[in-house]
Write a structure and sequence with these properties.
Layout lengths: L7 E10 L2 E2 L1 H10 L4 E3 L12 E3 L20 H17 L11 E6 L5 H13 L9 H4 L4 H10 L6 E3 L5 H14 L4 E8 L4 H8 L29 E9 H6 L7 E10 L11 H12 L8 E3 L6 H15 L5 E3 L12 H15 L1 E2 L14 E2 L5 E2 L4 E8 L3 E8 L2
Parallel strand pairs: 5-6, 5-7, 10-11, 10-15, 11-13
Antiparallel strand pairs: 1-2, 1-8, 1-9, 3-4, 7-8, 9-16, 12-14, 15-16
Length: 407
């Protein structure tokens, strides 16, 4: 951080995850190594090569949202609206009591409301245009979460959406930090994705990165010699960001920590002979935070579970931190990769790790010696933690890195 720059704090977390609804439930399950991965139940996946997912099973939208919102929103948006409510409650913030132009919403999205869109397209094909909901005009849209959250909470300040696949969640947080530094009082940021439906499933399968394992315990194995793709999931996290000093002045109930540094790069064109961009994004984030590699106490890895991509990540980490130079963890092994929602969920876990002095485990993984990582496996590891690095990569070459620290 440069002299005079605003320190940006996180004061509220709203979590919706396959292994826990709500921050406390998610964190308790994650510390215990409880997985939310299982057979797909939201549609009949028997005809598809990939049949496992990290699904949220105990979410009933009608228990949390007014009935008028249900017919006009996709499952993704319903989850996001509830996560937003929980984040505000956690931050002890009532949006209606703040100036509407001093609150913004910046989210990320990987797909949009695919389940809603599929349902309406089915009606179009089978019955005709008169049977397509008018809400289809926006419910499928990748920017809909930002829009619905801002409408529900009267937030008319700087807002938007970032689309960079798995990296998008960190990119959105970085955009939010930028707006806080420009003077916006509060920004809700992060991401929630949910596209476990045939249309979304086929789209995800085009990456050729989905695990086809039938065994939930051995399906998503990053940095393991048996790595063979990832398990998709649904959910994510939304975070309340504020100016650190203003948060303290208003008597914020808790300050989870600071957003200290951010770096983003794009991978070079395949076959160019130039190195991947992940290492550079880490170095940019550290430079932005004015921190050295030795200041980082834990890394929350992207963990693609594709052999070549795992090798790229482990090489980047070894180049920056030295071989086995910093503990690495992958709590996503309990949820699957949640696309744009994955990195904000890792970010929430990072702040909770800093608070409680523990590193959550990566489950089921048998670390390969060839990666040379100090991977935390089996059970949580107590540790003195002040700073963490969260990594995310999106399909197509996006790389993002975010450094956070205790306040």
């Amino acid at each position: 951080m440069r002299a005079g720059e605003t320190k940006v704090a996180v004061t509220g977390l709203g979590v919706v995850a396959p292994n826990g609804l709500g921050t406390d439930s998610y964190w308790d399950a994650t510390r215990k190594g409880t997985s939310g991965i299982g057979a797909v139940s939201r549609f009949d996946a028997e005809g598809y090569p990939a049949r496992l997912a990290g699904e949220i099973h105990d979410f009933e939208a009608e228990r949390h949202l007014p009935g008028r919102l249900l017919p006009q929103t996709d499952r993704m948006t319903q989850l996001a609206l509830v996560a937003a409510d929980w984040a505000f409650q956690d931050a002890a913030v009532t949006p209606g009591e703040l100036s509407e132009y001093q609150m913004g919403v910046i989210t990320a999205s990987s797909s949009g409301g695919f389940e809603f869109g599929q349902r309406e397209l089915k009606a179009l094909w089978s019955k005709g245009g008169r049977y397509v909901s008018a809400y289809q005009s926006f419910a499928w849209f990748y920017a809909v979460n930002s829009g619905q959250i801002s409408i529900r909470n009267g937030m008319r300040g700087p807002s938007g959406v970032v689309v960079s696949d798995q990296a998008g969640g960190l990119d959105a947080i970085a955009q939010a930090r930028r707006q806080i530094r420009k003077g916006t009082r509060l920004v809700l940021s992060g991401a929630v994705d949910a596209s476990i439906c045939p249309w979304g499933w086929v789209a995800q399968m085009t990456s050729n990165r989905l695990s086809t394992s039938r065994d939930p315990r051995r399906a998503y194995l990053p940095f393991d010699d048996s790595a063979h793709g990832h398990v998709p999931g649904e959910g994510g996290a939304l975070l309340v960001l504020e100016d650190l000093e203003e948060a303290r002045a208003r008597g914020a109930r808790q300050i989870y920590g600071e957003i200290r540094g951010y770096g983003a790069t794009m991978d070079p064109r395949p076959g160019s002979g130039r190195p991947p961009g992940l290492r550079k994004s880490i170095e940019l984030a550290l430079a932005d935070a004015r921190m050295a590699p030795g200041d980082i106490d834990v890394v929350f890895a992207d963990a693609a579970a594709v052999p070549e991509l795992d090798r790229t990540e482990s090489e980047a980490l070894s180049a920056v931190f030295g071989e086995r130079g910093v503990p690495v963890t992958v709590p996503k092994t309990m949820t699957g990769r949640l696309y744009s929602g994955a990195a904000p969920l890792d970010l929430a876990a990072a702040f909770l790790s800093l608070r409680d002095g523990v590193i959550p485990p990566s489950i089921a993984v048998e670390p390969s010696a060839r990666h040379g990582l100090d991977l935390v496996v089996g059970e949580e590891r107590p540790a003195r933690l002040r700073s963490a690095l969260v990594l995310a990569r999106g399909h197509g070459g996006f790389n993002s890195a975010l450094v956070v620290s205790a306040a």
